[in-house]
Each structure stands twice: as C-alpha cells, then as structure tokens.
C-alpha cells in the first residue's frame, strides 16, 4: 500500500496535436502528474511488418474540445474493441485499418469515420475498473490480408503469471522522445499475478477483470497506446502447416505516471471477464 500511495496511475491515451486532453485517470492528486504525461510510447518495441497485426486499428477520437489518439482491435467486420476512456466524451471516431501508419497515404489503409461508440456503464475514472469500450464502424469493412478480426479468448480460460504476451501500438520508444510514433510497434511482455500488481497499485485498482504485465527489462506501454491489443499466440502444427493464431487477452488501460521506463507494471482489462458485456453490446455470439 505504501507504493500505492506514492504512484500515479494515468490513462494511457494522449491527445493528438494540437490540443491536450484535460482529464486523466488518477489515484493520487492530479497536480503531481502533468509533467510526466507528455507524449505517447511503446517502450522497448520493434517495428511491425505488413499484415503482422491485421486486427490493430488506430483510433482518433474527437469532440468540440479536441482530439486524442488511441489503439483498438477489430473483433468483427463492424466492431472495434477499445478502452472506455478512449470513447467517453467523443462525438466522432476516425478509424484507420490495414496499415502500419495512421495515414491514408499508405497503400491499403482503410479509413472509416463513425459516430457510434459505447463505454462500459460501470467504468470508474478513479479505479480504472471496467475500462472497456466499443466503436461501431459506419459500414462493414472488407477483409483482406491486412485487415482481419482478432479471435477473442474462450470463456473460462485464464492467463497465468509468466505467460508470454505481445502488445502493440503507435507509441514512442522512450520517455524522452517527443510526439507520437508514425509507425506501428510491438513488444513482448509477460503476465504477472494480480497479487504482485496489487502490491504496486492497490486492491481497488487491481480486480478480477484486471490483467497486468511486466517487460523483460523496461518494456511496456504508455500514453497513446490506450485501447490497443494485448494478445497471446497459439501455435498449431496441422498437416505440416504451421499456423499461428492471435487471441485478444487484454485491452490497454493504464500505467504508472512516474515514467514508462521506470519498470512498473502495465495494466489491461482482462477480456475473458467481459465477454458477456461484449456479446450483449455487439450481438456477436461468443
């Protein structure tokens, strides 16, 4: 609990230029956080290659007060799963699919402009619980090699401490680098137990629907990667055909505001705990 008292939690989203968003999740006084909330980053990441992460989307949400960049995961031809704090307050969403950049100048990138988003009704800005949301595309997207929905986990499965996972987004690669990355990055991390994570952030923040990770050194996520995917990989050797399947295990939610390279855990929504909510709000049979 001592660590909990001195750490700040911030949502991992950041406003796209030119405006700074006014609200961030916090569990200690907000006034201590602003100097630590500049820019966005995937720490220790590597550049992705074409079609490597076909379910990843870039989500630029906007309102009369400004715009902010988040990540998201395509879970069907019509629905994107993201964080609640990415959806709340937004009146329009620019959804970029199929690219390594969030730019229509890149061949193969599809841009959908939509006005339909929903956040979990029980999302808490104070504790970060239920930080999950959905964005519905204006029309079903045409699937191809670069645009594919990610598989959701099976009900009742559980990510154990030590399991390798991969997180992706358009974040910076260090605390000192300025501005959003223009290129999609990914990093390999491993799950830690909720008990270990609660020792840092407290039991009010770390609940059954929370999943935490830690990098091998200081790898992790921070601003701008909110709502993005945390996946596990399944490897099937069927009839001499080696298949790799990604399953969406987490939605990027929060990190410690002491800096992304400090080595503190990153926090995610545990997707298995919210499958019913996803099904109820999308009509998808899971």
TrEMBL record:
It comes from the Eukaryota. Keywords: Disulfide bond, Hydrolase, Protease, Serine protease, Signal. Transmembrane segments: none annotated. SUPFAM superfamilies: Trypsin-like serine proteases. Residues 42-283 form the Peptidase S1 domain. One of its GO terms (molecular function) is serine-type endopeptidase activity. Coiled coil: none annotated. GO terms for biological process: proteolysis. Residues 1-16 form the signal peptide. This is Trypsin. It comes from Popillia japonica.
């Amino acid at each position: 609990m001592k660590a909990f008292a001195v750490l700040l939690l911030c949502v991992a989203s950041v406003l796209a230029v030119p405006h700074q968003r006014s609200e961030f999740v916090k569990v200690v006084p907000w006034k201590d956080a602003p100097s630590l909330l500049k820019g966005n980053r995937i720490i220790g990441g590597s550049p992705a290659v074409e079609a490597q992460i076909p379910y990843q989307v870039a989500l630029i949400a906007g309102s009369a007060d400004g715009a902010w960049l988040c990540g998201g995961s395509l879970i069907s031809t019509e629905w994107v799963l993201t964080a609640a704090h990415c959806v709340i307050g937004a009146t329009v969403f620019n959804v970029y699919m199929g690219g390594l950049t969030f730019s229509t100048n890149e061949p193969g990138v599809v841009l959908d402009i939509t006005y339909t988003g929903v956040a979990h009704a029980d999302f808490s800005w104070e504790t970060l619980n239920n930080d999950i949301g959905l964005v519905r595309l204006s029309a079903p997207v045409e699937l191809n090699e670069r645009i594919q929905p990610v598989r959701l986990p099976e009900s009742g499965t559980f990510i154990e401490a030590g399991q390798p996972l991969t997180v992706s987004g358009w974040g910076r690669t260090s605390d000192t680098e300025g501005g959003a990355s223009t290129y999609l990055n990914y990093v390999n991390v491993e799950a830690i137990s909720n008990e270990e994570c609660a020792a840092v952030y407290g039991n009010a923040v770390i609940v059954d629907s929370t999943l935490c990770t830690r990098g091998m050194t200081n790898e992790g996520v921070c601003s701008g990667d909110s709502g993005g995917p945390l996946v596990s990989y399944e490897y099937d050797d069927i009839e001499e055909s080696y298949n790799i399947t990604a399953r969406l295990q987490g939605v990027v939610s929060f990190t410690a505001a002491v800096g992304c390279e400090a080595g503190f855990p990153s926090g995610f929504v545990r997707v298995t705990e919210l499958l019913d909510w996803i099904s109820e709000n999308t009509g998808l049979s899971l």
